[in-house]
Design brief:
about 240 residues, alpha/beta, 11 strands, 9 helices, globular
Length: about 240
């Protein structure tokens, strides 16, 4: 079984243009993600998938494997599907390029020891949210699962609504997601679903079309960098790590 780690790194970001190249303690942000991911012995390969020559040049400068993909992809899943047409693997692990605090131990939770029976296999790592402010933050995409840990719905709204009880542990989807080749090809061949368009979440295309998306709860927290404030938070955490 071959598992390829793919780091989608798009230059155009509405809130933080050139985000993969944002300086984090003297290195571009995508470098920190790559260095963390390559520590995992479970990956048979690791590649940055970008749409911009500046990111490609930075990858070359810092010794990171990278491939150019089309500029018209509007989701990371679509970009990974293009990579799956260029590099053969059984499973493709998405590792978002804007999470420099990512812990490769989370890969051990989501990567199966054997190839799944479901040819359209999809899974995503989730984290519990501890603060009420995180639950109402629309940038955190909340997840509701059934008893088998299959995702029923992903929403930017606080779900479920705590009418009967507030005794509920909210979860959010993270940037670590796993796809089989057939799942990626299904995604590319299928129009955007209604809820996907409303919530702007890739995984809803699978769920709305009857495919199972597995949720894997992880204790390893990370920070998605979307604003200059997030950059400051990440730099602070990394400085603490380096001083230990």
């Amino acid at each position: 079984m071959k598992i390829l780690g793919v780091i989608p790194a798009r230059y155009a970001s509405s809130r933080l243009p050139g985000k993969p190249l944002v300086d984090i303690l003297g290195k571009p942000m995508v470098w920190w993600v790559y260095q963390a991911a390559k520590q995992s012995p479970l990956l048979d390969g690791l590649v940055v998938a970008t749409d911009d020559e500046r990111i490609l040049a930075a990858c070359k400068e810092y010794g990171m494997d990278a491939v150019m993909t089309r500029a018209d992809h509007d989701t990371p899943t679509a970009r990974i599907q293009e990579v799956s047409c260029l590099i053969q693997a059984d499973l493709y692990l998405q590792i978002m390029g804007d999470e420099p605090l990512i812990d490769p131990k989370a890969f051990e939770l989501i990567l199966p020891k054997e190839l799944p029976d479901d040819p359209y296999y999809v899974a995503g790592v989730t984290n519990r949210m501890e603060h009420p402010a995180d639950v109402i933050d629309f940038s955190n995409q909340k997840v509701v699962c059934n008893a088998r840990r299959e995702i029923l719905l992903i929403s930017r709204s606080p779900i479920p609504y705590p009418k009967g009880t507030a005794d509920f542990e909210y979860e959010k989807i993270t940037g670590i997601q796993l796809f089989s080749k057939k799942a990626l090809d299904f995604y590319a061949a299928t129009p955007k679903s209604a809820l996907e368009q409303a919530e702007e979440n890739d995984l809803m295309r699978f769920i709305e079309n009857g495919h199972t998306v597995h949720a894997v709860l992880s204790p390893y927290k990370t920070v998605s960098v979307d604003t200059p404030k997030d950059v400051d938070i990440v730099c602070g955490v990394l400085r603490q790590r380096q001083s230990r």
